[in-house]
Backbone:
């Protein structure tokens, strides 16, 4: 009888378990039944979890758009679009879609909101107004910092790779460059990633491990709640007293901020902290905002630089045309030495086209950036229930053939030079979104573009590059942030021009 009772109990549990699963899946499907997508995505979060872990959400979404149209489901309560006009409306002022749970993970373990996570529009606008002067360059003079670090990068490449005839991992060097720029601009600190060709505090190594975890937290609220619990944070949260990883850099940030708030004479220093302080940002807010600038800006900009570099050196036609434009500019004496100015770089049409096209083909930020509303919203005739996350698939948006033509998947900078005024406006209408739109325009846009334009020019003015392993030159993992690593190249110095 005991055996029979146990068998009956097991069967009952199995039946109730199956019934619960079926009902849950049905209720999940009914949340947004009018928006189609992969079946597993419509009934559970497992589809999105699988592709987040695999690191190919952008590719899976691209395939789903081709099958289901420009609005698809990636989870029971999550829809995404690759429609440019929808994306513009989502991020424009007055949009009824506010920042959703995707942004929660951008608190980066801090106890307060930063400019990326503030959901109240008035508070967000107020914080942006305080930060903008420090980001635009008007109060930070960051072109001088970029020039200084470009000189360090060129010197490092000559010293450690050309003179030693060694293979260089450009992915590593590009990250050191953007880290040195941002720590100089943000804190007026020179940590010396480039000068010593060293990953100080193992920061880059720690960041490479952290970004996939952040991606999971952005896409999956349950995982975020677990990892953001007091117990887990007490064990894993980076601390200012840490000797390695993010915590070590946070410690440097806290120390630098404290010195600025202790010494009023530092208010006139050309740094983000000084600018933030002058415009009413508190000490603790400065700590979080400067670290956000480094985390969000260093890897994304270095990835943009890596991808532009990779596209150029693996495309002989583009490589040749870009080198010719650079050589002609040098011979005509229209560019400064030793470092080109930003205005001079922006006057070189093919260089600008290369940067625009590389950013289009593989934008460094691919997060779904989910937004939501407390009310029903309508997207392309489809009614989206309250509290449904609505995101954008940036990779797919950049490959929309209706905007960029039948060759949208190809890297072809010439499209930006051949287009008539109307077509060019359509191109720029799409790619402008990669730096955000409306109230979400990237604060670091000017600095990132400066690093890209000046960095690419000086690299190809000074050196010739050839990729070491053409079969597998780069490892890419792309969801919220792209990780590009192992970009090994041989370097040869060009004759002085």
Residues:
């Amino acid at each position: 009888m005991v055996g029979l009772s146990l068998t009956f109990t097991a069967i009952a549990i199995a039946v109730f378990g199956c019934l619960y699963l079926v009902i849950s899946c049905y209720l999940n499907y009914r949340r947004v039944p009018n928006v189609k997508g992969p079946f597993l995505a419509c009934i559970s979060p497992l589809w999105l979890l699988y592709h987040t872990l695999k690191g190919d959400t952008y590719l899976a979404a691209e395939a789903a758009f081709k099958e289901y149209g420009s609005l698809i489901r990636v989870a029971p309560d999550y829809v995404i679009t690759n429609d440019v006009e929808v994306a513009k409306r989502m991020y424009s002022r007055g949009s009824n879609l506010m920042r959703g749970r995707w942004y929660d993970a951008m608190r980066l373990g801090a106890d307060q909101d930063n400019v990326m996570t503030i959901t109240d529009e008035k508070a967000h606008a107020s914080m942006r107004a305080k930060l903008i002067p420090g980001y635009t360059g008007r109060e930070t003079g960051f072109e001088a910092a970029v020039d200084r670090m470009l000189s360090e990068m060129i010197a490092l490449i000559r010293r450690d790779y050309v003179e030693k005839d060694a293979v260089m991992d450009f992915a590593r060097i590009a990250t050191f460059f953007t880290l040195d720029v941002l720590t100089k601009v943000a804190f007026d600190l020179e940590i010396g990633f480039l000068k010593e060709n060293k990953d100080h505090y193992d920061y880059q190594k720690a960041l490479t491990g952290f970004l996939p975890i952040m991606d999971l937290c952005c896409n999956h609220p349950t995982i975020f709640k677990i990892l953001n619990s007091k117990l887990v944070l007490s064990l894993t949260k980076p601390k200012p007293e840490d000797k390695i990883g993010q915590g070590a850099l946070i410690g440097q940030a806290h120390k630098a901020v404290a010195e600025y708030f202790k010494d009023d004479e530092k208010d006139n220093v050309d740094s983000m902290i000084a600018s933030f302080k002058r415009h009413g940002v508190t000490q603790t807010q400065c700590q979080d905002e400067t670290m956000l600038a480094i985390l969000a800006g260093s890897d994304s900009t270095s990835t943009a630089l890596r991808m532009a570099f990779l596209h150029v050196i693996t495309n002989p036609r583009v490589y040749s045309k870009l080198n010719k434009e650079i050589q002609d500019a040098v011979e005509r004496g229209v560019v400064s030495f030793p470092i080109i100015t930003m205005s001079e770089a922006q006057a070189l049409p093919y260089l600008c086209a290369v940067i625009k096209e590389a950013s289009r083909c593989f934008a460094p930020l691919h997060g779904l950036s989910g937004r939501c509303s407390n009310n029903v919203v309508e997207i392309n005739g489809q009614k989206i229930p309250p509290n449904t996350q609505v995101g954008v698939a940036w990779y797919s948006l950049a490959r929309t053939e209706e905007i960029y033509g039948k060759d949208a998947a190809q890297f072809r900078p010439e499209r930006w030079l051949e287009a008539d005024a109307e077509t060019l406006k359509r191109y720029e209408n799409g790619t402008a979104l990669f730096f955000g739109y409306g109230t979400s325009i990237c604060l670091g846009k000017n600095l990132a573009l400066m690093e890209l334009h000046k960095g690419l020019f000086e690299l190809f003015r000074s050196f010739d590059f050839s990729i070491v392993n053409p079969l597998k030159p780069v490892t890419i993992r792309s969801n919220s942030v792209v990780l590009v690593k192992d970009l090994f190249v041989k370097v040869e110095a060009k004759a002085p021009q």
Remarks:
- Confidence is low (pLDDT under 50) at residues 471-483.
- The chain has one domain: 33-493.
